[in-house]
TrEMBL record:
Domain of life: Bacteria
InterPro entries found in the cross-reference section: UPF0473
Pfam families registered for this protein in UniProt: DUF1292 (PF06949)
HAMAP family, A to Z: UPF0473
Protein name as it appears in the record: UPF0473 protein GHI93_11300
Lineage: Bacteria, Bacillati, Bacillota, Bacilli, Lactobacillales
Family: Belongs to the UPF0473 family.
Source species of the chain: Lactococcus hircilactis
Length: 110
């Protein structure tokens, strides 16, 4: 069962992209948008990878990154974020490939 999350875009002075997600309980959380992926050709939708701004590292020093599919409204305005089904293997493969390339580029820049 997929849950649609209401969201708003917020812009900060450093021009990094942030989004507020509202969960099923009505709790708001601020996330940083790490990466957007164009999956229109393959799957007819785009994807967004987000990381909680106040995310705590786990015991391995990793922070939870969440992925959603994004469908823009027909008028070009903001649309809906939808969790990606766990069994959508081809979609996850695309996301993982793009994310791995993104992380490799980030490491090269350090």
């Amino acid at each position: 069962m997929a849950h649609t999350h209401d969201h708003e875009h917020e812009h900060h002075e450093d021009e990094e992209r942030y989004i507020t997600l509202i969960d099923d309980d009505g709790s708001e959380s601020l996330f940083e948008i790490l990466l957007t992926i164009d999956g229109q050709e393959e799957f007819g939708k785009n994807y967004v990878l987000v990381m909680p701004v106040d995310g705590q590292e786990d015991e391995n020093g990793e922070v939870e990154i969440q992925a959603y599919s994004f469908t823009q409204n027909e008028d070009g305005s903001e649309g809906d974020l939808t969790p990606i089904p766990e069994d959508a293997d081809e979609e996850w493969d695309l996301i993982e490939e793009v994310f791995d390339n993104f992380m490799d580029q980030q490491e090269e820049e350090l």
